Structure formats: structure tokens, C-alpha cells
Please model this.
Amino acid sequence: MWTKIERGERMADTQPFGRFLGTEITLLQSGQAELQLALRPDLNQEDGFAHGGVVSYLADSALTYAGGTVLGPVLTLEMKINYARPAVGDRLIARAIVVSSGRTQAVCRCDVFAQSEGGEKLCAAAQGTIIVVPKRPKPT
Amino acid sequence: MWTKIERGERMADTQPFGRFLGTEITLLQSGQAELQLALRPDLNQEDGFAHGGVVSYLADSALTYAGGTVLGPVLTLEMKINYARPAVGDRLIARAIVVSSGRTQAVCRCDVFAQSEGGEKLCAAAQGTIIVVPKRPKPT
Amino acid sequence: MWTKIERGERMADTQPFGRFLGTEITLLQSGQAELQLALRPDLNQEDGFAHGGVVSYLADSALTYAGGTVLGPVLTLEMKINYARPAVGDRLIARAIVVSSGRTQAVCRCDVFAQSEGGEKLCAAAQGTIIVVPKRPKPT
Amino acid sequence: MWTKIERGERMADTQPFGRFLGTEITLLQSGQAELQLALRPDLNQEDGFAHGGVVSYLADSALTYAGGTVLGPVLTLEMKINYARPAVGDRLIARAIVVSSGRTQAVCRCDVFAQSEGGEKLCAAAQGTIIVVPKRPKPT
Model:
């Protein structure tokens, strides 16, 4: 979650759910992350645009990756998302930045854009708290 | 999104993304909705528990369905989620209620539980605004 | 912030800003807090009802006090509030509960009611994260 | 709430609660608002820094004013705030922008800074939904 990759390199998300959906990591550098997800009918709600849950998943993940670039192994503690416009297009692009960070926590923001032939349109804005993974035994 | 079903009846979510993940609607009655989702490795993050995006998707959907029971066709305008505990178990259960509603909007809350042999544990708490679908042409 | 008081006892908030506004602590017991604030013209916005900032202040404080009943000295890390109805009345009453708590953090919810002769009406719903005060030197 | 003022002009907030606290409007132009508030002991919590409720009040107001610059008479429907750092200093400065807006709603973000001799430090980040005041009789 915290490996830095070069700008422009495109890497599959290594989390099972990210792979399942087809998430690509398109930018990871200090204080920033960008994720992309190709849209397809399976990811829609009944009105023909991407389900809000897909948009919030991508925002949440981008917030986590952005926080991870400054904190190391992290989790999202909480997040908030405003849906600004139906997510219609070929691809979602989530761009997250670190707004403030301390030793164990970071506040991050994310904008999610729907990309189509006509360009990119903002479809959601998110904000959340990313925390260093607490030291405890992994669930087995 | 707003059809009332009898308590206890279990119905597949009719939204493509809900079907894709396997979401079941287990309760829809005035002011309340319950959704369930069987967990499987595809829905996990790398640590072996359900990805936060899965949890927030289910919470978001339950908020929407709950709001829909009092408002008719609806969308989630915005939501906030706190992750309280890793979502480890066989099944997620999201229970949402309407806290306040007007003519075009409702404030709803949702608790998400992870169910395993040991019972149910709260893994997330969400709150959001559900709005009546604005009258405008559907995207084509 | 964490002293337990008997139910029904009414105590002035000992924080300067709480005293300045006239906040009363009307309940503090494990996992719960209730604060009250008498409304007056100074606390209004231009439309004759309590300013949203007054409502969110009271919700935030109640969340903090509730968290403090289980965690000891605490701070609000973040919060979210939905304004459900204009806060018109003689008095605001904020009731907060702990939804989930760990060693250093708690997720709390709060309902704010406006009380008038006609009874109590929900005017806002809040949710937030309360954390144990980090060990660091006090600002001087 | 929606009168445009020239950049740099400093105007007292005309809302009773804003006047009570001493809020100044230091910028109002299309899509942006800046509010300032001189800190004083009355606005503190017990630890010597501004009460979170003061910070969230200022953020909420700045979000509303920013939304008002594009929508006209408005209300805050909901907001979320992350406290990033104790608000220690002489003055709080809240800078809000419109991220997205439609006919009746806007999504806005706000950063709150604590200003002292050492400069400005971000102490909170907020995001919320601003809506056009619904057409209904004013409360009397």
C-alpha cells in the first residue's frame, strides 16, 4: 500500500477486492495517489451509471494509498463522500492528496472524476482520516 | 429501490453492482432496510478481512434503500462512515434506519455488522443524506 | 470532561467557551452524555433560529463528553453533522452515546433536539471519532 | 449571506451569532469566501486553545458563505470536519471554496488556519453541502 511507483506507471491494485474490480494504481508519490477503474455494466446501479458504492470504494482506496505514501502501512479510519454528479463514462479516476499528517494519522482529500470522450467531470469529493495500522495480531 | 417486501423475505439486489457482489435485501419496511452480503476472498483487502470499500458500499446501499422506503426513487447525496473494527466473518449485515425525513430528503443511519460463528460484531457506523431522484433526463 | 455526575444533576460546562455560551451538562454516565443550552437572540442566525454553528458546537461537545465517559481525557478527532430542521425553540438538548470504543478511540453519535412548548424536535444528527488526548506537552 | 464584497474589504458578519463572536468577512467573491475570527480566552476549551466548536462554527459559516456566492440565499445541509491540530494563535482564518455546484446545491470545502506570529497553520479541514433556502414560511 506504500510502495512508491514512478509517475505514469500503471500497476494493478494488489488487494483482492481491487483486483476483482480491476483497479489500477496510476500514481503513487509522496502525499499523492491516483487510482483508475474502467467502468462496465457490472459496476452500475439501475440507472446506467456507476454505483455510488463503486465511487466511494475508489475514493476510500485512493485516500488510503495517499495516506500510505507518508505513513507506511495504513487503514482508513473514517471517510465522508459527497456525490456531485452521476458517474457516467468509460473510466473513474480518483485523485487523493494528503492535507495534513502527523506521526500516526493523516487527513486526506480525494476528487473522483468520470472520464469519457468529452473529458473529465468531477463526480464526487471525499475526505477522511488515514491511520497507521495498529500493532496487533492479524486476524487468522 | 423502493418496493416494500415482507419482513424476512430474501431478495437479490436488482442493481447490477449489487448482483455482481451478491447483495441480498433481507428487510424493507417503512423507515428501515437490511442488506446482507456473504463474504468471500474476492471481497477482501490484503489483510484477510473485507475491504473497507465493500463495507461502505453495503452501508451506502442500505442507507439508500431505507430512505427509499419513505421517499420513493432516491439517490445517496452524501454519506460518512466510521470503520470501528476489521470486518472479519462469513457475512456482512447492514441495518439502516431513517432518522428524519421531509418531502425530498431523509437523514439515515446505518450500522454494519460482521457475522461469524461467534455472533455479530459492529464493524462500521454510517450516516448520510438520501434525496429524491431529481427530475431530469436520464443519461443515455 | 470525564467526571461522572448523577443523572439529573445540572452542572455548568467548565470549558471557557461552554461557560461563555451557557452550556449545561445534564447527564454524564458510562457511554452517554447530555448537554443543554438555553437559546437566546445572540445565538441565532439572521432567520431567527439558532445558528448551525451553535448546533454543531453542542453536538461536538456532547460527542466529546460521551467519549470521555469511557476513555478519560479526550478530544474530538473529527465529526459530521446533518441539519434536519431549523433549530427553533427555547433550548437545545444534545444527547450523545458511544457506539463503539477501543483503548484509544470511540465512535459516538449525537442527536440534537430543539425544545419548545410543543415538545422536542430533532434538529440535527451527528457522528464522530473521539480520541484519547495524545501525550504531548501542552501548548504554552 | 450572498452579497458580493470586494476582495480585501473587511465586514462584520451580519448574523447575530457571528457578531456575538466577532466574525469578520474578509473575502466574498464568486466561489470563494474567507472569514476571520480573533481568538480570546472566552473561545477556548480548557487546554488553552480554541474550542473545536468555534473552529467548526467558522468552517460551517465559511462553507455557507462560499456556497452563497454562487447560489444566493443558502443554508448548510450537512458538513464534516477533521481537526488536524490544536487551534493555537491570535486568529482563525477559514477559507472556503465551491468544489461543485448545481441549480440548488453546492459542495464546498474549507480549510481553517490558526494564525500566530509564526505564521499560519492548518488546524482543520471541512467539507459540506450547501443548499438554496427552501421556499417555506419563515418560523415566527
